[in-house]
Amino acid sequence: MTHTDLKHSEITEKIIGASFEVHSFLGNGFQEVIYQRALAYEMSQRNLNFQREIEQDIYYKELTEPIGTRRADFVVQDKVLVELKAIKELEDVHMAQALNYLKAYRLEVGLLINFGSKSLTFKRLVLTNNPRNP
Length: 134
Fold this sequence. Notes:
This protein has about 130 residues and is α+β, with helices and mostly antiparallel strands. The chain has one domain (about 5-125): Trna Endonuclease, Chain: A, domain 1. Helix content is about 35%, strand content about 25%. A five-stranded mixed beta sheet has the order 1-4-5-6-7, sandwiched between helices. The longest helix has 18 residues, at about 10-25.
């Protein structure tokens, strides 16, 4: 499978390109919100539609009332979740968090992007067989 066969690859490639542009200009060492604002600018320059910091209800089992809410950094084109970090290195807990966001937002594809290391790092996450995805 080539990268162009990946689901939503045209969107994720633009997001990753925008992220490299931000990291190239700012480097590491800033708070996450600085990268979030810069990435919003770069994504808009690439004609990507996105929502930032949208709150999502979290449900548990058959409960009809949400047990809480979470906010993902971005949902791009209503298809790709983007979670940003500004830490030394990504850990398994960050990937688990992003996968949980995919479930909560009922999305299949996500990017976990870290601006905190010397070089930009990212993980492409795909949630398959999500019972909440139609």
